[in-house]
Amino acid sequence: xxxxxxxxxxxxxxxxxxxxxxxxxxxxxxxxxxxxxxxxxxxxxxxxxxxxxxxxxxxxxxxxxxxxxxxxxxxx
Length: 76
Known about the structure:
about 80 residues, mainly alpha, 4 helices, elongated
């Protein structure tokens, strides 16, 4: 079980990670990420954004790649 200090540090790390990641994303990637984090599936995201499901899948793959890069940059 984590102590309160570890929880605060983890929250701060997550906030920095999220802020940095968002700075690397395109407008579409930000929109896709928003709905993805709201538990929408690929088809639902595509419908809401008026995009093809494949475009959503491609955006999520780019987001994951950028997230990996940001983690490496921040050495999290």
